[in-house]
Specification:
Length: 202
Amino acid sequence: MSTAPSKRRFTIAEFLAFEEDSVEKHEFYQGEIFAMAGATIRHNEISGNIFGQLHSLLRGKGCRPYGSDLRVRVQQANLYTYTDTVVICGPIERDKDDPEAATNPRVIFEVLSKSTESYDRGKKWEFYQLLDSLREYILVSQEEAKVTRYFREDGGPWRYVLVSGIEEALTLESLGCELPLADIYDNVTFGPEESTDAAESH
C-alpha cells in the first residue's frame, strides 16, 4: 500500500471528507490513508461473475451481494476498506461514524493478485477475523481455477478448505448455496497474471 495524501495522520472525519471528493478509492487504517489502484480486466471479469451469480442465487433469501464500492468498517482495527464482493444478510448495520460503511458482512470475497496476495492472506485477513458477523472468507485465484475458503461456525475456530479444478464447486454453507468454479471463471483465460502499470486494489 502507498500512502495517498502527504499528511501523516487523519481523523475519521477527515478521511471521509477526502474520500467523498476523490475519484479513486482509499483505505483508512489507524489514521493513515492508502491509495487503492485499479484492477486488471481479468480481475473485473472474475469479480463480476461472482457478484452476478450471487445476486441470482440469493434473491429472496434475505442476503444480498455488494460490489467493490461498498466500504466495510472493521471497528476493532480502526480500518475502513473495500472488498471485491461482500455478502450481507439481513439489514445493513451501518458504522456510527460513516453511515455509508457496513459493519456486518457475512461472506467476503477477495480476488488475488501478485501485488495484493500477501496482504489478503495476511494482515487484511487478520483484520477481517475481528468481524463478529463474518462466517466465510473466500480467496479466488486469477491464474487457475482455485479457491481457498476459510469458514467458521458461531464461536468456533477458523478452518479452511481448498477447492481446485474447473469442474468443482464452492460450497457457501453460511449462505446455503454453491458456486460452480465454471461460473466463477466464466469467460476467463488462464495464464500468468496480466501486466498492468498499477497494482490492483486491496
